[in-house]
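fyi for ur records
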Amino acid sequence: MLEFAESIVHKEEVKSTPSSSRHEHRGLAAALPFLILGVVAVTGIFIPVVHDFSGQGSYQAADIVWMLIASALVLLMTPGLSFFYGGMVSKKNVISTMLQSFIATGLMSVLWVVCGFSLAFGKSWHGLIGNPFTFAFFHGLNGHAPNLGVHTQIVLTIPLLLYALFQMKFAIITPALVVGATAERIRFTAYVLFMILFSLFVYAPLAHWTWHPDGFLYKMGVLDFAGGTVVHISAGCAALAGALVLKPRKVHQFGEPTKPARITYVLLGTGLLWFGWFGFNAGSALTAGPLAVSAFATTNTASAAAGLAWIFFDALRGRKPSALGFCIGAVVGLVAITPAAGFVGIPQSIFIGFTAAVISNLAVYWKSKTSIDDTLDVFPCHGIGGMVGMLLTGIFASKQINPAGNDGLWYGGTSFFLHQVSGMCIAVLYAFTVSWILFKLINWLYPLRVRDKDEEIGLDISQHDESL
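which gave:
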């Protein structure tokens, strides 16, 4: 926590402040996170205990079992992401990068219980945001859903609490994705603060707009089956904002070559992500039925096609096929199919994976020609991949796959396609703008970047005093 304390006082002020006063400031800064968590913990004991929710609604045991499994699968994606990112950074930054992703499992879990779920799925305020007190501290999740403004099908088959837990896993991994763009130069405590603010001011509003039945994008007819807009576009645009605010790493400025620390970590992370993504997409069907099976199939197919397309496209351009390339391509395919998984057919998912891989591959190449230092290409892969997925959902969605969806442009749904384009543009503009403001605000309060000497020795030692 020393870094957190140092960041709240400018160097000039530190030099001119008496030693005893500096220690007081550092002590307060170090104690603040613990005190906030303590207040939350104490508040929890005053929340009334509610009776068992087993009698509410007509639940299906098979759906409950499947959604419990799906929730666990989605949670597994975050440690998978940690390995995926950790393997691609330099050896002196592996632990810091992995921890910046993995800490979201604790941070977002508590925040989601306290107010996050309420902001995303509570009683809507003009279709923009939920009432933060609707389900504060998860109180009231045993209630009857039609009176609480959530999807009717959720109440009919699974407890509302289970739906809240499933959605929690999405809220966990989204800010963790941004880590890849700011890796190797951002202060740990500053990024923790960003995660909190991002969840409250970017993720929760986008989730409300897109998935709450009173959200304005939902009412517009925008379709996002499992998070192309809410998760990947928001994280990708936040990543671009973070990279711009933080400025390039020293090695990037000087053009020094960098090598991934552990390709085996990347392979392991990709396997965990691919495995967990079945819960991410097939779980978004919310039932153990045919729609979950279809989403499962399209997810695997798109990822497979994208992984192959990436390395084959590399070979076409004279590069050797690489393990890293296949892994990145597979993840891009998973990203692109996410908004479409429950709305498109299996043959179309091949095209979605193939197209997303080629476009993201080119985006990575074009980005490499600029001064933008998105360390692990989060924007080209997650941001662009999510946009491609949203647009192709607007083209290939079919009511034959999901009657609750719509027919895309390929099947005559011109107006629906235009709604997808509009929804995508709104999400991109909002996520980038607000994230840029948040990074700027944090940088004003607590400098985002580590000191030059800390960046040189690596964040594992300078931020955490740990090493491989």
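The radius of gyration is 22 Å. thats all i got for now
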